[in-house]
Specification:
The protein is an alpha/beta fold. It contains 12 helices and 12 strands. The protein binds adenosine-5'-triphosphate and magnesium ion.
Length: 279
């Protein structure tokens, strides 16, 4: 056990395993378990190397690390988006509530594990209303108009956008500001009541005010959902995440409670990254 700034109750909750200069926290009853995951786009080269980690329910887990270290590759594997790359090879397993995700049909999996991307990407020809329920349309799921209305209002309310758009639901989604569009994209994910929301740098294309709104939203959403957030913005990770991962050259080097990882990193590479020595 390494001396870190965690209080006693946290110590009871977590067990740290330290091997080969890595420090990885063990999460009790994780909602998602990544086990010995390696991913390769080209034979002999690994974008993700032997990553194992549990994800804590109703928390925000930040994934940090320099460009090209495998953050997006890891995130995409969690809802099997990486299958879109034909030459990709994956080793290891991922479990959602103890169920191997490779056994879950991809449409169902992506409803349970939604994803929000770096650039807000509402469907350009669709209205705000249709964007929220786009997933149902694309899957060919028929639902009653009254149920659709409910889903649209609830999802837009959950992302604190309802009051801003309720009188213009039939205008195009792209008519909104960048920050509003990103909240619309989160609403589109919430329309399925997912368990987990994956976010790949969701605020890097936004201004500070829109970023602050998304950050407040994530802190609110974690009461109901589990969020995994890739971010280049270290102050963002420090501000809003509960747990943080530091990846380097495809490996998970350090994973811990955000406060202690930032104030007292175990690994030298983590410390160098956090102090801006590289990245
Ligand atoms: N579609 C692809 N085909 C081949 N190689 C890829 C592909 N996508 C990513 N890679 C490689 O895999 C490695 C990890 O890339 P990845 O995009 O996961 O990194 P990242 O940490 O998300 O970087 P960034 O912070 O720049 O977004 C890199 O070496 C990258 O060149
Ligand atoms: Mg990336």
């Amino acid at each position: 056990m390494v001396n870190r700034n965690i209080n006693e109750s946290q110590l009871n909750d977590y067990l740290m395993t330290i091997e080969m200069n890595k420090a990885i926290i063990d999460i009790k009853n994780p909602v998602l378990t990544i086990k010995d995951l390696s991913i390769s786009y080209e034979k002999g080269k690994y974008a993700v190397k032997d990553v194992s980690a549990g994800i804590k329910k109703n928390s925000i887990t930040a994934i940090m690390g320099p460009s090209g270290c495998g953050k997006s590759t890891l995130l995409r594997a969690i809802n099997r988006m990486h299958e879109l790359y034909p030459s990709i090879q994956t080793f290891g397993k991922i479990y959602l509530d103890n169920e191997d995700i490779s056994a879950i049909p991809s449409i169902k999996l992506r409803q349970k594990i939604g994803m929000v991307f770096q650039r807000p990407n509402p469907f350009p020809t669709m209205s705000i209303y249709d964007n929220v329920i786009a997933g149902y349309k694309l899957n060919g799921t028929r639902i009653k108009k009254s149920r659709k209305d409910e889903i649209v209002e609830k999802s837009l309310s959950d992302v604190v956008l309802w009051d801003e758009v309720k009188d213009s639901l039939h205008k195009r989604g792209t008519f909104l500001s960048g920050g509003q569009q990103q909240r619309l994209c989160v609403a589109r994910t919430l329309a399925f009541q997912p368990e987990i929301i994956l976010m790949d740098e969701p605020t890097s294309a936004l201004d500070p005010i829109a970023t602050a709104k998304i950050e407040d939203l994530l802190v609110e959403l974690k009461k109901k959902y589990t969020i995994i957030l890739v971010t280049h913005n270290m102050t963002q990770a420090a501000r809003i995440s509960d747990l943080s991962m530091f990846m380097y050259l495809g490996e998970l080097i350090e994973y811990g409670i955000t406060k202690s990882l930032f104030t007292n990193p175990v690994n030298k590479k983590t410390e160098e990254y956090l102090t801006g020595k590289f990245g």
